[in-house]
C-alpha cells in the first residue's frame, strides 16, 4: 500500500510540476464554457437581425410599415431592390427579405375585418438561418396590425378580425434558368467546419513532429547539407500543405458521394479556398513549432489556440449566432474566412469573385505565419 501511495504522489507531483500544461487544462474548459454560455445564456442580447424590405406598394400603409421596421431595434433593416436584396440573402449577408406587394395598402384594411381577399407577403430567407424567420414574421405582423390600427385602413364591413395578409416562406437557394432550385443541405456547413477543425489539428501534429525531430537532433544533421533555412522549412510547409489538401479533398469526396453536398458555386473558387487553407494550416503548424520550447509544453498551447480559432471561426456553430461584437471580432480569425468561403462555394452557389477576398486574407496570414516561423525557429532544443 505504501508503494502504491508513493507512486500516486509521484504521478500527481509530476503532473502539477508542468505549470503550463496545468494552466491550459484549466483555462481551455473555462474559455469554452464561457463562449457557449455567452451564446445561449438568457442574459445575452440578441444581435440585430439583418433583413431586407422591398416596398412594391408605396402606399401610406406600406411606407409606415417600412419606417416602423427600420426603427425596430431587433432588426437591421435594409430597403432596396428585390433582385439586389435576394442576392444578399443567398450570399448570407441578409437573413430574410420581405416583399410588400402592390395593393397592400388598399387590401389589408378590408382583409383585417374579413371583408376582402388578403394580399400575400413573400418572405425569402436564408435556409441556414431559418430560426430568424419566426422573429421576422412576428415583427412584421405586429407592425402591420399597429399601423392599420392607427388609421391607415379603408372602411369595410366587419365580419371578424383576422391577420390582414398571408405570408409565403421561400428558401433563398441557388437556382438557374435550366434547373430547379437546390434544397439547402446542412451537411455542407458541417463538413466545412469539421474539415477546418481537423485539418488545423493535423497542423498541430506536424508541429509536435518537428519538435521531436529537433529533440532527436535530426534538424542539426540536415543543416550539415548544403540547404538554407528557408529550403529546409519550406519543404516542410509544402509537404504539410499537400497532405492537408489531400485530406480535405477526400473529406469532400465523401461529403459529395454520401451526403449530397454540392459545389453549387465556382469550382475554381472552391479549389482556391482549399489550397489557401492548406497553406494556412502548414504555416500555422510551423509557427507553433517555432514558438514551442518542448513537445510537452507546446501541446497544450497549440490545442488551446486551435480550439479558439475553431470556435471563433464558426466551425462549431454558425457565426450568425454570435453576439454582434463577436461577429465583428471573429473577422480577425482566418478560420472565419475559410468556413464562410467554403459555404459560399458550396451550398450558397456564389461566383469566383466571392472566393478572392477570403483567399487573400488566408494567404496574408500564411505569409505572416511562415516568415515569423522561419525567423524564430531554433534548430536545437
Topology readout:
Elements: H1 2-17, H2 19-40, E1 49-55, H3 60-71, E2 75-79, H4 82-90, E3 96-100, H5 104-112, E4 120-125, H6 132-152, E5 166-171, H7 187-215, H8 218-222, H9 229-259, H10 267-291, H11 295-312, H12 324-329, H13 334-345, H14 353-376
Parallel strand pairs: 1-2, 1-3, 4-5
Antiparallel strand pairs: 3-4
Helix pairs in contact: 2-11, 3-6, 7-9, 7-10, 7-11, 7-13, 9-10, 10-13, 10-14, 13-14
End-to-end Cα distance, whole Å, is: 39 Å
Count of separate structural domains: 2
What is the β-strand count?
A: 5
Main pleated-sheet profile: 5 strands, mixed
Helix content: 55-70%
Low-confidence stretches: 152-160
Structure description:
The protein is 63% helix and 8% strand. By secondary structure, the protein is α/β, with parallel strands linked by helices. It has two domains: 49-171, 3-Layer(aba) Sandwich (abc type-2 transporter like fold), CATH 3.40.1710; 183-376, no CATH class. A five-stranded mixed beta sheet has the order 2-1-3-4-5, sandwiched between helices. Strand 4, helix 6 (132-152) and strand 5 form a beta-alpha-beta unit. The relative contact order is 0.12.
Characteristic terms for this protein:
381 residues; alpha/beta; abc type-2 transporter like fold; 2 domains; five-stranded mixed sheet; 14 helices; 63% helix; elongated
Amino acid at each position: 500500500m505504501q508503494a502504491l501511495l508513493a507512486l500516486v504522489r509521484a504521478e500527481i507531483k509530476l503532473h502539477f510540476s508542468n505549470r503550463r500544461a496545468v494552466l491550459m487544462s484549466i483555462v481551455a474548459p473555462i474559455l469554452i464554457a464561457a463562449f457557449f454560455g455567452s451564446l445561449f445564456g438568457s442574459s445575452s442580447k440578441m444581435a440585430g437581425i439583418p433583413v431586407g424590405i422591398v416596398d412594391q406598394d408605396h402606399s401610406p400603409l406600406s411606407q409606415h410599415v417600412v419606417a416602423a421596421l427600420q426603427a425596430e431595434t431587433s432588426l437591421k433593416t435594409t430597403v432596396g431592390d428585390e433582385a439586389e436584396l435576394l442576392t444578399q440573402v443567398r450570399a448570407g449577408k441578409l437573413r430574410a427579405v420581405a416583399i410588400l406587394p402592390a395593393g397592400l395598402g388598399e387590401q389589408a384594411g378590408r382583409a383585417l375585418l374579413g371583408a376582402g381577399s388578403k394580399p400575400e407577403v413573400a418572405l425569402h430567407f436564408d435556409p441556414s438561418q431559418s430560426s430568424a424567420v419566426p422573429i421576422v414574421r412576428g415583427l412584421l405582423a405586429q407592425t402591420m396590425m399597429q399601423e392599420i390600427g392607427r388609421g391607415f385602413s379603408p372602411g369595410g364591413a366587419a365580419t371578424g378580425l383576422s391577420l390582414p395578409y398571408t405570408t409565403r416562406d421561400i428558401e433563398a437557394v441557388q437556382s438557374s434558368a435550366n434547373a430547379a432550385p437546390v434544397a439547402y443541405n446542412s451537411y455542407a456547413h458541417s463538413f466545412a467546419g469539421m474539415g477546418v477543425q481537423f485539418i488545423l489539428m493535423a497542423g498541430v501534429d506536424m508541429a509536435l513532429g518537428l519538435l521531436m525531430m529537433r529533440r532527436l537532433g535530426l534538424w542539426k544533421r540536415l543543416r550539415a547539407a548544403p540547404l538554407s533555412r528557408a529550403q529546409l522549412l519550406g519543404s516542410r510547409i509544402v509537404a504539410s500543405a499537400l497532405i492537408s489538401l489531400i485530406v480535405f479533398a477526400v473529406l469532400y469526396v465523401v461529403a459529395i458521394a454520401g451526403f449530397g453536398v454540392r459545389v453549387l458555386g465556382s469550382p475554381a473558387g472552391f479549389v482556391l479556398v482549399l489550397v489557401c487553407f492548406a497553406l494556412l494550416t502548414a504555416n500555422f503548424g510551423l509557427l507553433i513549432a517555432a514558438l514551442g520550447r518542448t513537445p510537452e509544453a507546446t501541446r497544450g498551447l497549440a490545442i488551446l489556440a486551435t480550439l479558439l480559432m475553431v470556435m471563433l471561426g464558426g466551425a462549431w456553430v454558425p457565426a450568425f449566432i454570435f453576439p454582434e461584437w463577436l461577429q465583428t471580432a471573429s473577422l480577425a480569425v482566418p478560420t472565419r474566412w475559410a468556413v464562410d468561403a467554403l459555404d459560399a462555394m458550396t451550398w450558397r452557389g456564389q461566383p469566383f469573385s466571392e472566393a478572392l477576398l477570403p483567399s487573400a486574407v488566408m494567404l496574408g496570414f500564411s505569409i505572416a505565419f511562415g516568415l515569423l516561423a522561419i525567423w524564430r525557429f531554433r534548430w536545437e532544443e
